[in-house]
Design a protein that fits this description.
Blueprint: E1 4-8, H1 13-24, E2 30-33, H2 41-46, E3 54-57, E4 60-63, H3 65-75
Bound molecules: glutathione (GSH).
């Protein structure tokens, strides 16, 4: 299992932001699709608003797509922002 796990939904554009960043950076990650119409309890415990995406990095959940993108930019190679 990768150190990066993305809690996802197939149609979620906010998830796609994270997937684009992870893919462009060549980061290995596991993706778990969440049924947003029937959210599992474990998901509600890590996602305060019950929304995707949530990125779990080394066991620590990060929620909201913009902070996830900032975290990936700061911790993964291949910068997507100009210096
Ligand atoms: N501001 C959030 C928006 C995330 C969001 O709205 N996700 C939707 C799916 S695209 C969701 O999880 N909806 C389920 C719900 O609101 O119960 C972000 O940028 O991550």
């Amino acid at each position: 299992m990768s150190n990066l796990q993305l809690m996802s939904h197939a149609l979620c554009p906010y998830v796609q932001r994270a997937v684009i960043s992870l893919t462009e950076k060549g980061a290995l990650f596991d993706r778990t699709d969440i049924d947003l119409a029937n959210k599992p309890d474990w998901f509600l415990q890590i996602s305060p608003l019950g929304k995707t995406p949530v990125l779990i990095s080394v066991g620590q959940p990060i929620f909201e797509s913009v902070p996830i993108l900032e975290y990936l930019e700061e911790t993964q190679p291949h910068p997507l922002h100009p210096a």
